[in-house]
Amino acid sequence: MINGLIPHFNPGELLGTITIIKDDQAFNPAEEPLSRAIEFSASVFQNPRTQFFTESVNAELAFGLENLGVDPKEIESRIQSAVELLGIKDLRGRRFKELSGGQLQTVACACALVSPGSLVLLDEPTSNLSMESIDILARVLHRLKELGTTIIIADHRLFFLKDIADQVIYLTQGKITRSFRAQEFYALDEPERKQLGLRSLHHVPLPASVPVPPTLENADPQRSGLELSNICFSYGAHEVLNIDHAFFPSGEVTALIGPNGAGKTTLARIICGLASPKRGGSLRLNSKRVGAAARRRAAYMVMQDVGRQLFAATTEEEVTLGLAKKKRDHIDVNEILHRLDLAGMAQRHPQSLSGGQRQRLAIASAQAEQAAIYIFDEPTSGVGWRQLQSISALLRSLAASGAVVIVITHDHEFIQESVTRIIDMTDINKN
């Protein structure tokens, strides 16, 4: 509503008034043409792909100001300042299809900085960011605050806002149920934090050690698992992967970590058979070589942008979509939905769910699939503490059944709760 998308783009009944004041002028987003939104506000969406109108970083950074008729020299100056602040000068010549989710999110933040608006709205801006990128974003937000910018952030990750936020508003079913001054909020004790369903209020470091693997039911811990050898991949002249060897054991939850743009999602696509390495690379599942077609049958991937893999008309249908009837008959859909805090949503259209709910629905579909390899790409983006616990329990259950479970994540809190092994892309990727 604040950025004018409601009611101009998303229709509905809007009661009350929103007033934005800039340079002694008052704007009501509901009454102004949507084309004027960029003049008073800038938005960073939960899924940045939905807000891009061009195919490359340079074009997108300039797009909004070009539509306002801003002088090209001024546009270049604003772009240069934004990319330097966010440390993404090296991305300026890249196309979006070559970028990771975290890099896309950072570019969306840069677009917001370029905007002339005095109000910045960010929806889950850290969901795909590495800790290094979160630190940079926090410094940028602190600088914007010093410059007098109004900043509104909706996020489940809270630790990075400790020295930035002045007020914290707690919503339940669309209503404000609690309001805190920042000092009061960050002084909440652990029982109250968990009772409110909030993520950690403080930075959680990578664990020095990981939990004991779950009890194996079907896995041989000696050589059971996925083995990669000589995996290389490039986007044109840009080399993304050069991996001599990596091993993901059955019966464990392996976290695949590394900075944004390190090639984690590209590696996941190769493992799932959605992309192929250069000639000479091999993948073996339980010591047997598996080609792309075999990997597509053996693997199930929950993508970073789950909206791309939800196809059914209802949540209930989505969980069992594509399963053979014999397998569907043995699936308790309601139990799976309840386990992932989706009870009561069986008849909802998947695309009507929130980002976090869609994420959990895709994970529910993964549980029903009964695959040999599971890959979860940032599965905790947009989820609170209770949902994080549910996802952690589900992943460990899949591992206990003997599956290979790989989690691509920057979420240290989730790693501490879930994983039994950590592989850093910077250790295995020589590119």
In short:
The protein has 2 domains: about 5-160, P-loop containing nucleotide triphosphate hydrolases (Rossmann fold, 3-Layer(aba) Sandwich); about 225-430, Rossmann fold, CATH 3.40.50.300. It contains 17 helices and 16 strands.
Task: Give the helix/strand layout.
Layout: H1 5-8, E1 20-22, E2 25-27, H2 37-40, E3 41-44, H3 57-67, H4 72-86, H5 101-114, E4 119-123, H6 131-146, E5 150-154, E6 167-172, E7 175-181, H7 182-185, H8 190-195, E8 225-235, E9 238-249, E10 253-257, H9 264-271, E11 282-285, E12 288-289, H10 292-298, E13 299-302, H11 315-320, H12 325-328, H13 333-339, H14 355-369, E14 373-377, H15 385-400, E15 404-408, H16 412-418, E16 421-424, H17 425-428
Parallel strand pairs: 3-4, 4-5, 10-15, 10-16, 13-14, 14-15
Antiparallel strand pairs: 1-2, 6-7, 8-9, 8-11, 11-12
Helix pairs in contact: 3-4, 3-5, 4-5
